[in-house]
Amino acid sequence: TYALVTGAPSWLTISSTSGAVSGTPPTGTTTFTYSVTAANGIAPNATAGPFTVSVSAAPAAPAFTTDTPPLTATVGTSYSYGFKATGNPTPAYALVTGAPSWLTINTTTGAVSGTPPTGTTTFTYSVTATNGVSPPATAGPFTVSVSAALSAPVFTIDSPPLTATAGTAYS
What we know:
Elements: E1 2-4, E2 13-14, E3 21-22, E4 31-38, E5 46-54, E6 60-66, E7 72-74, E8 79-82, E9 84-88, E10 92-95, E11 104-105, E12 111-114, E13 122-130, E14 137-147
Parallel strand pairs: 7-14
Antiparallel strand pairs: 1-4, 2-3, 4-5, 6-9, 8-12, 10-13, 11-12, 13-14
């Protein structure tokens, strides 16, 4: 007859006839330890263990936790934002088809960056997070308004009259 020794988790069971151990570790469990005894009426009973089992987190589909990028940018100035998603295994990031060619994403960190070129007034993009567990997560679409680059002042007329008359307004 098989039995779990005192101290085994309450969710762990054993077949008294086959010795098969089974159970479902609850979410958040990282390790558990147990020992087994076998008895047949002849002393002493046999004991095996303790066995310490490492528990991996259950697979989980990605979910964005940081997904509110800036919706304004300036021509010639770097635009950037760091998307974050949870999931197990750790998600990889990608831009969805249709993002501008100058916009890139770090597939590991989720950092989006790029510099809007001259002539850009808006751009739209979306980001996906995937890890092989369905469904993938999508953030967006985001439409970003792009303002013209600030530029230094330039004179359009730079040759004032070089003579004046006393008692007469100069202009």
